[in-house]
Write the structure tokens for this entry.
Amino acid sequence: MMDLQTAWFLLIGVLLVGYAILDGFDLGVGVLHIFARNETERRLGLTSIEPVWDGNEVWLLTGGGAMFAAFPAVYATVFSGYYLAFMLLLAALIFRAVSMEFRVQVDSAAWRRFWDVAFWLGSVVPALLYGVALGNVLRGLPIDAQGNLHIAFLDLLNPYSLLVGVLSLVLFVMHGAIFLAARTEGDFSRRMTRWATGAWAGFVLLYVAATAMSLFEAPHLFQHVKQNPLFWAALVLLLAAMAAVPIFLRAGRLVSAFLASAAIIGSMMALVGVSLYPTMVPSSLDLANYSLTIYNASSTPRTLAWMLGVALVGMPLVLIYTAYVYKIFIGKIRPDEETHY
């Protein structure tokens, strides 16, 4: 029978997967924003995410809140060690949100250009930092016997974590390009399809490089996975989704390509979870004794049980609401439509 700690490990994983899939295409659209050829294309990009982008970010807040409640030691340790990185991430997300509203407040090309660059940076920085943060966790952080983490910001920018950061950036660009291609028509949709194809090729190369580098930088991830059927199931899903994306793009089946792209993100996150479990944050100082696991970093069983009861009621409602919003607002957008932007 699944214990409470494992249940919360899975639940937080679901929240992070949901965020990566939903806000991932938002971030990809933001990265592509700077490459738009004219104001019409920029408006198409912004309009495509207008109804859903802020709701997508709620998944990140919920995941962080769940981490704080279920595994407070992990929350405290990681957030203290990543403090400067998280402040940079927060500033980027704020500028990203503000720029979407401010760019239309003054009828000036220079004004819009400034906020377009802010929106682009506010998308690039999070897409990169998420991967950097994950890469450092996979590699292991210098956690001591007291659970303290002392690490400088520049130490987070090691070659392995930067590689994972670039991987996440390219993955979100692919995801966002497919989303834009599916939501638009004509030349812009075809150009986004080409962007998606190119980003897919870059992602495959980066993924192979990151996997190879993981064998040397994070060998502990491969110690117990060979006998785990969940690992192989996630790997098969990942490989199938990776193969499906270019096939669907060439066939013009853009919705299917988007679902395959989402499956890539979900299966990659599943591989991370299976490889780490039951560890949440490996210690590079003493993997066996100093690492934070779902057992030595969790809240009390009573706390986990009460929260799980609330989550079992709340999560289905969130999923239903999210599905309803996408059903209402998602559809083709056209240049001649009157929009906020």
User: Anything to note?
Assistant: The chain has a mean pLDDT of 93. Strands lie at 279-281, 292-293.
